[in-house]
Amino acid sequence: MNQFQYYTPTKVIFGKGTEENMGALVQEYGCKKVLVHYGGGSVKRSGLLDRIYQSLDVAGIAYVSLGKVVPNPHLSLVYEGIELCKREGVDFILAVGGGSVIDSAKAIGYGVTNEGDVWDFYEKKRNASACLPVGVILTIAAAGSEMSDSSVITNENGWVKRGYSSNYCRPKFAIMNPELTMTLPQYQTMSGCVDIMMHTMERYLNHADNMELTDGISEHLLRTVMKNAKILLNDPENYDARAEVMWAGSLSHNGLTGCGTDGGDWASHQLEHELGGMFDVAHGAGLAAIWGSWARYVVDAGAERFAQFAVNVMGVKAAGDGMQTALLGIEAMEDFYRFIHMPVSMKELGIEPTEEQMKELARKCSFWGRRTIGCVKVLEEEDMYQIYKKACN
């Protein structure tokens, strides 16, 4: 096993009705004015936003609001939020939503507390030295951003999607009421389940001499999400299934499933980020569409690990050599994606990139030839192009 540090400072308040005492929770941090950051109209239609305002009023905390966060959150709204926070004297950000809202809130927090252009952090030109405190009321189980150190933003200038990680942005608290996810469309729920699984699989599929305990946690988490995703297909208001998936989302991306590993591969995420940036697709669905092509491209460099995944997670019976078992595991994973109505190709995702677009995707993913991605097999720009090409079939 590798040496590791595990840091999870986020306070979790989990269960029914937990959002009702949100004002008192924010009050604990001594803030004077809150930015309530959210996405579309669902938080308004459900009455959640009004309940949040009422709770803040009862606690005597002033607030301003900024909505309009979209999937693959935009840098332009981050800039708007930074300006609003500075003008209004905001000292705490409350993100109400899923990963996109939380990521946008983190970026705003960076921009308020650091000089210069916040996009510099996402371009890896410099590092942040602070972030406004962020709290979360989670309404979508998917990204795990409610407990992670990560934030991903899309710059509309060139439609480039980039991530930045720092412990400064880890949320102070995360309120998780599974009931708040019950009205999500099936596609969004299943896309979220894929995202949760991929956060675990990215860490699990590696070249490290892994810890048996970490492997066991990862394998059980994956099986749990698969089991409960199937339940939610037919019973979307099943509280227990929603709770299992919501908690799995947090554990998948708070560092737990990476303890003792080499950090994982993450090539599938990097490849999908460019799809999200160019075509604005749902992140989990994009991951499902690209994963099988990536897996078959790199499996020869990690057949033993893929075979372990096939047997322990997908329930595949070992067949022949490790490579045969590994390939059966990849097929089983794609069968699961199909079962929950997720795409396994870009065509099924609803996009058919041209040759030039695939080359552009690879150029952007390689940072114009300046970086490689992945650890199972290190991928250069040409490899990335070939994976995109395979994913079109």
UniProtKB/TrEMBL annotation:
Keywords: Oxidoreductase
Entries under SUPFAM superfamilies matching the protein: Dehydroquinate synthase-like
GO molecular function, one term: alcohol dehydrogenase (NADP+) activity
Domain Alcohol dehydrogenase iron-type/glycerol dehydrogenase GldA positions: 9-178
Domain Fe-containing alcohol dehydrogenase-like C-terminal: 190-391
One Gene Ontology cellular component annotation held by this UniProt entry: cytosol
Entry-linked InterPro entries: ADH_Fe/GldA, ADH_Fe_C, ADH_Fe_CS, BDH-like
Pfam families registered for this protein in UniProt: ADH_Fe_C, Fe-ADH
PANTHER family documented for this protein: ALCOHOL DEHYDROGENASE YQHD
Protein name: Uncharacterized protein
Organism for this UniProt entry: Faecalicatena orotica
